[in-house]
Specification:
- This protein is α/β, with parallel strands linked by helices.
- It has one domain: Metallo-beta-lactamase, Chain A (4-Layer Sandwich).
- Helices cover 36% and strands 18% of the residues.
- The strands form four sheets. A seven-stranded mixed β-sheet has the order 2-3-4-5-6-7-8. It has a four-stranded mixed β-sheet with strand order 9-10-11-13, with no helix packed on it.
- It is globular, with a radius of gyration of 20 Å.
- The chain starts with a strand and ends with a strand.
Amino acid sequence: MAGDRAKSRRRAYSDQRAADIGGGVWSVPVPIPGNPLGYTLVYAIESPGGPVLVDAGWNHPDAWQALRDGLAGVGIDVADVRGVVVTHYHPDHSGLAGQVRENSGAWIAMHEADIALVKLFRDVVGDGTHRDFQADQLRRAGAGSHEVDAAVTFRPEPPALPDLALTDGDLIDLPGRRLRTIWTPGHSPGHICLHLEDADRLFTGDHVLPDITPHIGIYPYDRDDIDPLGDFMASLRRVMELGAIEALPAHEIRFADVAARAAEIHAHHQEKLRDLRALMAESPGPRTIWEIASLMTWNRPWDQLAPMLRGMAAGEAAAHLRALEVSELIRRTADEPVRFVIHS
């Protein structure tokens, strides 16, 4: 994830506690071992039929203990959980959903687009081809052989396969309450926010965070059949229409005006697109995705980014290049690896 404010208000995990945040909603911080994000905020919503969780946290013994003990601390036995709604398939959100289901019989729900990815990843990890896939996409983006070897990373085990496929506008099975699915693709194809209509609060997952912006990338980097950044910008506009309601994000802290923050993030990416086009105009020759990513501004200089972070930066560069291509401001060449130039 990229920062767009001077300092995140995220506090250390050691300072976090499970909390009653009113209206029959509790938050439980669940650690992400070895990750600078620190923790995922899992939310529990009460209902007469049992509590429903929004996200579940990373699949790790310490995270499982934190989730179980945190729920117990606010009076919830994990065995009583009715269901888990996963905002998106990423492991810090979906990882423990299967263990919750094993201990409670709860259902797991996720948007249908991310369920398709979970099925794909289970097949890829199962046949051992994921490292070859990563290396191939890095080469196609223009990374050198030494950069490819350094950037190929370990992929966590895929999450449990959900029981329920959600689509935009679906109401979650939460007796006595109204929790509605809002499809907000961008950070992932099936990312969802959840509008608790009876309290006018929005669980934003990673879509809208108070101080950082979610990673928006394309994988493989050279795909020309999707536009994740365009989808993300449209999703932000949907959230703006909800007005100044409280946001309950999966990271950092709760905040009061989700529409205002969505507008800030929208403006941030518009500025980033303008900067990228200006950068390409200064160097009009064809450049690979990897070359362009190395010239863009990140939260630290390119030569100080770890190999994995360079791979993520290239994915984000690819998403911004694709948005400019869709707007017909740049075009791609037929080269291998693909290159982009200012549209003539």
